[in-house]
């Protein structure tokens, strides 16, 4: 048996994709819509409280195309906290005007492929900042789930640690060349959801997603072992732009 990579875990993650029922939203009267917007704002204010208390981080982005209309991305200490957030949203009046499109459950993950030994990583402030990150406010998000292949000839999980480490080094080098342009949060989901990882990218220039993902397609770990799910891309919403999007 090959050595399993050691992983460090941080906050649990929920990507909660919703679509707007425009017919119902347009049929609602002004008062009902005002209540829905107030409750939505109150719900989003709680995110700031959680973030200030160091208990998690949340953000919301539009989703362009017909897979969903927006995605709420939550990071919290426990799965119960995530379920609570999901329920709290479902209880809002605004939720009545939305339908569920997709969701993804995972946990922020770092592996030891390129890590340095020494010390308790959970006491290392740099590592903790990556395991429990405050979500950036970049203009664009890109999310997709992925697997590493387990085919007869191309089975990531049958490779030696050294072989995998070599490929991850090359992966990391491509990633690093996008420093300042793209930030990544890798969340592990083996045993938690349908794919093995969630890839969430943030950038102020959506074209950088295309450039980075394309460049990685030529890199062995992606070219040979990567399997990818659906891509979701969109732009940052705040209370103001959310309200603007819903204005009739
Ligand atoms: C934005 C840039 C960027 C950078 C700097 C970066 C670097 C790194 C490093 C250094 C490491 C290894 C240590 C760790 O941190 O775990 C990883 C790990 C990982 N990555 Fe990555 N990655 C990036 C970006 C990046 C992208 C765009 C993708 C999607 C791949 C593609 O083809 O679409 C990805 C995937 C992953 C995955 C699934 C893992 C876990 C693999 C495992 O088997 O455990 N990643 N990644």
Tags for this model:
8 helices; oxidoreductase; globular; heme; binds harderoheme (III)
Note down, in words, how this protein is organized.
The protein has 248 residues and is an alpha+beta fold. It has 8 helices and 9 strands. Strands 1, 2, 3, 4, 5, 6, 7, 8 and 9 form a 9-stranded antiparallel sheet that branches. The protein is globular. The termini are far apart. The model has no long low-confidence stretch (mean pLDDT 97). The structure holds harderoheme (III). The site of harderoheme (III) has 24 residues, from strand 4, strand 5, helix 5, strand 6 and strand 7. Keywords: Heme, Heme biosynthesis, Iron, Metal-binding, Oxidoreductase, Peroxidase. Pathway: Porphyrin-containing compound metabolism; protoheme biosynthesis. Involved in coproporphyrin-dependent heme b biosynthesis. Catalyzes the decarboxylation of Fe-coproporphyrin III (coproheme) to heme b (protoheme IX), the last step of the pathway. The reaction occurs in a stepwise manner with a three-propionate intermediate. Its cofactor is Fe-coproporphyrin III. It catalyses: harderoheme III + H2O2 + H(+) = heme b + CO2 + 2 H2O; Fe-coproporphyrin III + H2O2 + H(+) = harderoheme III + CO2 + 2 H2O; Fe-coproporphyrin III + 2 H2O2 + 2 H(+) = heme b + 2 CO2 + 4 H2O.
Summed over residues and divided by their number, the pLDDT gives a mean of 97
Q: Can you write the helix and strand succession as a string?
A: EHHEEHEHEHEEHHEEH
Poorly predicted regions are none
Please state the structural category: alpha+beta
Tell me the total number of β-strands.
Answer: 9
How far the N terminus sits from the C terminus, by CA atoms, comes to 60 Å
List the ions, cofactors and other small molecules found in this model.
harderoheme (III)
| Oligomer status | single chain
> C-alpha Rg, in Å?
19 Å
**Main beta sheet, described?**
9 strands, antiparallel
* Count, helices: 8
Helix content: 25-40%
Shape: globular
Residue share in β-strands: 25-35%
InterPro entries: CHDC (IPR031332), ChdC/CLD (IPR010644), Dimeric_a/b-barrel (IPR011008)
EC number: 1.3.98.5
Cofactor: Fe-coproporphyrin III
Catalytic activity: harderoheme III + H2O2 + H(+) = heme b + CO2 + 2 H2O; Fe-coproporphyrin III + H2O2 + H(+) = harderoheme III + CO2 + 2 H2O; Fe-coproporphyrin III + 2 H2O2 + 2 H(+) = heme b + 2 CO2 + 4 H2O
